[in-house]
Automatic annotation (TrEMBL):
Transmembrane segments: none annotated. Coiled coil: none annotated. This is Deoxyribodipyrimidine photo-lyase. The keyword Flavoprotein applies. PROSITE patterns: DNA_PHOTOLYASES_1_1 (PS00394), DNA_PHOTOLYASES_1_2 (PS00691), PHR_CRY_ALPHA_BETA (PS51645). Keywords: Chromophore, FAD, Flavoprotein.
Length: 461
């Protein structure tokens, strides 16, 4: 009988344990289900849907090159899988582990819906280690990153990546499939994704090309990763999020190239750490982990002035060049440099005193790498509301950060109103009398914002 191969955020054929296991067992029915029901309000945002469309197209082509194909269905994943398995007479469904709370629920529901003797078999491999694989001396999962990193590092390197299976046998009969174009995952009018097409090549091949392009840069990662103008980061996050490449593959390709690469490996482990946090605290994306912040006096979004400030942040019109450059890069390409993500997030939370969850939701909708774990863990890290240190009172000065990390060229690229402003005025043109009339004044002064944030913090402290 055929084997069902269930794809989720693991859209690759190489180093994919579920693909290898299914291909070894018999004829395979590869399935992807667009499920907007199971994740509820966490259904994929607009930018992710753009990526998904292209990634599925690429995966289907890759399968066709092997004589197979991808079956597409839309609806409740557990119900549909049980139905496909029943009709095909399949005894096994193979898939990779995922740790978003809605997937854990769906797996439970699926197991309950399967006929006796039909199994759901889950494999590891989308992370370096499964959550809970390393524990503190007391046997508990880690909450803090640094000891987590040290424990993971001791267990590395990961196993050598495995190749694409030689053969993927086809079933006698294919189940019905939707057509990808009918899913309308791409924007129509206005097409806000023209910049995405220039910036990215979704799919396994594009992911590997990105790894190739990064190899030489990896030896300068430590010195360059905080400089938004330098373009020395790997831009692998959407490829890793959609599982077009495994972290083990990335690890083996970059490792052993000197000291600076170790800093890169630490970042890859941040991705594992984020999974480890949401696996322990499934509510992490929806509420502040530290209880006292649940009553924090955020500004009220029903107030028109606050809603206007939020809009200004979303669209890169705050009058803070580094924040505006980041938010416009995000809108144009679906991605933002990590240092700038930290500055922009801190600005929303502390300068505008807007609930971090509003920013997290905007990122969820606009990032091509929008990831439940990485997004909520990083937002809670910046806001100081999370499992690690309370950073609320560490209020980043965006203009100083911009200067320190030499963001001039980055700002000139993304904020055309400032393209003729030179260093050092570019970081704070208003202060230096260099602000062109076309660029807006600061939405709020740094000192006033800082004082307001600290006053608000005093309420919950
Ligand atoms: P590189 O610097 O080349 O790092 C390599 C890989 O390591 C990344 O691709 C990513 O998979 C992982 N990584 C690096 N930094 C982090 C980190 N801080 N946390 C978790 N993984 C990390 N990353 C996402 O993948 N999805 C998100 O939704 C997301 N939201 C974020 C929100 C905020 C407010 C902040 C401050 C950071 C967020 N990040 C998120 C983390 C980080 O900014 C991106 O992973 C990184 O910028 C991606 O670019 P890169 O691939 O060039 O990273």
């Amino acid at each position: 009988s055929p084997i069902i191969l269930w794809f989720r955020r693991d859209l690759r054929l190489s180093d994919q344990a579920a693909v290898a296991a299914a291909a070894a067992e018999g004829p395979v029915i590869p399935v992807y289900i667009l499920d907007d029901e199971t994740p509820k309000h966490r259904k994929m945002g607009g930018a992710s849907r753009w990526w998904l469309h292209h990634s599925l197209k690429s995966l289907d082509q890759h399968l066709r090159d092997k004589g197979s194909r991808l079956i597409l269905r839309q609806g409740n994943a557990a119900t549909i899988l049980a139905d496909i398995a029943h009709k095909a007479g399949a005894q096994q469904i193979h898939a990779l582990h995922h740790y978003e709370p809605w997937w854990l629920n769906a797996e439970k529901h699926l197991r309950e819906s399967l006929a006796d003797g039909v199994e759901l078999i889950l494999h590891d491999g989308n992370y370096l280690l499964p959550p809970g694989a390393v524990t503190t001396g007391g046997g508990d999962p880690y909450k803090i990153y640094t000891p987590f990193w040290k424990s993971v590092r001791e267990r590395m390197p990961p196993a050598e990546p495995t190749p694409v299976p030689q053969k993927i046998d086809t079933p006698d009969q294919w189940p019905v499939s939707d057509s990808l174009d009918d899913w309308n995952l791409l924007p129509t009018k206005p097409d806000w994704a023209t910049g995405f097409t220039k910036a990215w090549t979704p799919g396994e091949e594009g992911a590997r090309a990105n790894v190739d392009a990064f190899i030489d840069k990896a030896t300068r990662y430590d010195e360059g990763r905080n400089l938004p103008s330098a373009e020395l980061v790997s831009r692998l996050s959407p490829h890793l999020h959609f599982g077009e490449v495994s972290p083990a593959y990335v690890w083996h390709r970059v490792t052993g190239r000197g000291r600076q690469v170790e800093t890169y490996l630490k970042e890859i482990v941040w991705r594992d750490y984020a999974q480890n946090v949401i696996w322990q605290f499934p509510q992490y994306g929806g509420e502040s982990y530290r209880e006292k912040f649940r009553d924090f006096p955020w500004r009220d979004m029903n107030d028109a002035k606050v809603a206007k400030d939020f809009e200004a942040w979303c669209h890169g019109k705050t009058g803070y060049p580094i924040v505006d450059a980041g938010m416009r890069e995000l809108w144009a390409t679906g991605w933002m440099h990590n240092r700038v993500r930290m500055i922009a997030a801190s600005f929303l939370i502390k300068h505008l005193l807007i609930d971090w969850r509003k920013g997290e939701q905007w990122f969820w909708d606009t990032l091509v790498d929008a990831d439940f774990a990485s997004n909520s863990v990083n937002w809670q890290w910046v806001s100081g509301t999370g499992v690690d240190s309370n950073m609320f009172v560490r209020i980043m000065a965006p203009l100083t950060q911009s200067e320190k990390f030499n963001a001039g060229d980055y700002i000139r690229k993304w904020v055309p109103e400032l393209s003729d402003v030179s260093d050092p005025y570019i970081h704070d043109p208003e202060e230096h009398g260099a602000k062109p009339a076309s660029y807006r004044s600061k939405i709020i002064g740094h000192k006033d914002a800082r004082a307001r944030a600290l006053d608000a913090y005093a309420v919950v402290k």
